[in-house]
UniProtKB/TrEMBL annotation, chain B:
NCBIfam families: ant_ant_sig. It comes from the Bacteria. The lineage of its organism: Bacteria, Pseudomonadati, Pseudomonadota, Alphaproteobacteria, Rhodobacterales. CDD domains: STAS_anti-anti-sigma_factors (cd07043). Belongs to the anti-sigma-factor antagonist family. It comes from Brevirhabdus pacifica. GO terms for molecular function: anti-sigma factor antagonist activity. This is Anti-sigma factor antagonist.
Length: 202, 114
């Protein structure tokens, strides 16, 4: 089943948007395939692991991103080939997630509320699918969706739960914490070698 | 999907030897579990100790396996990573599928589940 997927990972070009206070952004494009979603999540996870987040905090971000992107692959694109664009931006204590795709629009023009697997009926067996949106809404806030020009645009925010002093290295000033430079590409000088034209996940 | 099986006198321990049980793995997991539990005794314990990520598709696959085994056989899960436990807890599936904190070991008595 696994097959080679080359996913261009394009860090935001320097100066593409105004500098954000205490944060930065990461922009990724991927093909509408479940394996590409998995590889993208691994790459995002590597960026998150460089931030001073609790394991649970990083896990919630990964879960929300997984559910949102898998929904697009399975429901918006189905068997058709499509493109997903993911942008992560840190805004204070939250990670603002924006996901765009050129697949079908959401039925009814809005994201579902999401139902848990257990219906609440006594003795009723749990449902074995369709609760991705229940999980997204459980770990995110400010869910927004709109359709424009043949693109779906979904955004939500996930809390960034930082490690306490007991759970990690002693806190350093914010600008010195490597994690707060989410997905930042080392400069040519820092890297000591020419920057790659694009990053390949995997 | 890589699974290993260990038989104990009255139970089968199936271990997932991959780190993600996600949408990309869900169908293969269901198929592999169906094959692995064809001759299973009454209790089937799914050791998820190596799984660090579970999404709704992965959980849905576990629920489907549980329903497939019932009523003659019961699915239980063991050694859940905190990220995996969160998904069980948020969906309240920890109230439906018995959860064992530790990894089951050979010749070790597992808690009885009523």
């Amino acid at each position: 089943m696994p097959h080679p997927v080359s996913v261009p990972l394009r860090p935001s070009p320097p100066g593409s948007r105004p500098p954000m206070s205490g944060g930065s952004s990461l922009t990724l494009s991927l093909r509408s395939e479940l394996m590409a979603v998995r590889q993208t999540l691994r790459a995002v996870r590597r960026s998150l692991d460089a931030m001073p987040l609790t394991e649970g905090g990083a896990g919630m971000v990964e879960l929300a991103l997984a559910e949102a992107m898998n929904n697009v692959v399975i429901h918006a694109h189905g068997k058709a080939t499509g493109i997903l664009q993911l942008r992560l931006r840190q805004t204070g204590s939250h990670l603002l997630v924006r996901l765009r795709d050129n697949g079908r629009g959401m039925p009814g023009g809005s994201p579902p509320d999401g139902l848990p697997p257990l219906t609440g009926e006594l003795g009723e067996p749990p449902r074995d699918g369709g609760f991705g949106w229940f999980l997204i809404r459980s770990v995110t806030s400010r869910v927004r969706y709109r359709r424009a020009g043949g693109w779906n645009c979904l955004s939500f925010s996930v809390p960034l739960i930082l490690r306490g002093p007991a759970e990690g290295p002693s806190p350093r000033p914010r600008h010195e914490r490597p994690g707060f430079r989410l997905g930042v590409v080392p400069t040519r000088e820092e890297a000591g070698s020419p920057l790659p034209r694009s990053w390949v996940i995997g | 999907m890589q699974l290993t099986k260990e038989y104990e006198p009255d139970l089968l321990i199936v271990t997932v030897t991959e780190d993600r049980l996600d949408a990309a793995a869900a169908v293969a997991f269901k198929d592999a579990m169906k094959a692995a539990t064809r001759d299973a005794p009454r209790r089937v314990i799914l050791d998820l100790g190596q799984v660090t990520f579970l999404d709704s598709s992965g959980l849905g696959a576990i629920v489907a396996v549980m329903k497939q085994l019932a009523p003659a056989r019961q699915l239980e899960v063991a050694a859940l990573h905190p990220n995996v436990m969160r998904v069980f807890r948020l969906t309240r599936m920890d109230s439906v599928i018995p959860v064992h904190p530790g990894r089951p070991r050979r010749n070790q008595d597992l808690p009885k589940v009523s």
